[in-house]
Write a structure and sequence with these properties.
This protein has about 260 residues and is mostly helical. It contains 13 helices and no strands. It is about 50% helix and about 0% strand. Helix 7 (about 130-135) packs parallel to helix 9 (about 160-175), helix 8 runs antiparallel to helix 9 and helix 11 (about 195-200) runs antiparallel to helix 12 (about 205-210). The radius of gyration is 27 Å and the shape is elongated.
């Protein structure tokens, strides 16, 4: 007589789970408790950050017994562009709130956005000297390169804001004059120095500042061009053309 005992599956094998057999409540609880940030709450956070509303930021990121922090959100959570709260505070120029976020909430000083730019890059672009000073003194990498290869000083030279650039150079000089000179003459993409960028975009005050701090006026980029050769190539600063030409050609004449 044949053995009619059902054949058992070998150990280690499991029967495929039929999701329809799960109680509906279990499925709903799993969906609600996934730990993902709520989009509307994140939008509220970004608005508070852009406005520099420290009390609201504190309530959402730190919280207390009555108001717990947002679920799935930390001080280093980024928006769709990779911008963290510290990036956004820097862009908007909220220095005191940025200091609190760094010192009390422990924001990542060198967080990177989708272009690998740090908060210091943004302080340089926006010309926020006070924020550049704060970030540098809290340990920000003054020579951080973004995804294209630009440093914060290159960023400042592009925008023409000398306050932030002066903070960068002064911080480097605290280490040594050699380090400051290396920063000023640092080659970026296509071999362009901060002086190339300042000259190209027609920023005479920036050119003057860089020359005063040891920028090499005739350093060649990868195309063999000096800063003088690219003056106002970006289409701006045409009124500064005579001054820029004199600044960048005078040392050659003297030689």
């Amino acid at each position: 007589m044949a053995d009619e005992t059902p054949t058992e599956a070998p150990l280690g094998e499991t029967k495929p789970l039929d999701s329809t057999s799960l109680p509906p409540a279990t499925i709903e609880e799993t969906e609600e408790d996934d730990g993902a940030p709520d989009p509307d709450e994140l939008a509220t956070l970004w608005e508070a950050v852009r406005e520099g509303d420290q009390a609201s930021i504190d309530e959402m990121l730190v919280g207390d017994e009555e108001h717990p922090p947002l679920v799935g959100v930390t001080v280093n959570t980024a928006d769709e562009d990779g911008l963290t709260s510290l990036h956004l505070l820097t862009i908007e120029g909220h220095a005191s709130v940025a200091q609190w976020l760094i010192d009390e909430v422990l924001a990542d000083i060198d967080s990177r956005d989708k272009y690998k730019q740090t908060p210091l890059h943004h302080a340089a672009v926006k010309g926020h000297g006070t924020l550049a000073h704060l970030l540098l003194n809290r340990g920000a990498d003054a020579m951080a390169r973004d995804s294209a290869g630009w440093t914060p000083l290159h960023a400042a030279a592009r925008s023409g804001f000398t306050d932030a650039a002066a903070e960068l150079v002064a911080h480097a000089k605290e280490t040594s004059a050699e380090e400051a000179k290396a920063m000023v003459n640092c080659a970026g993409p296509r071999g362009e120095t901060p002086l190339h960028r300042a000259a190209y975009w027609g920023h005479a005050p920036m050119v003057e500042m860089l020359l005063e701090h040891g920028a090499v006026f005739d350093q060649l980029n990868d195309a063999g061009r000096r800063p003088f050769d690219v003056v106002c190539g970006g289409g701006g600063g045409q009124t500064a053309l005579p001054k820029l030409s004199k600044l960048l050609r005078a040392p050659a004449a003297a030689a």
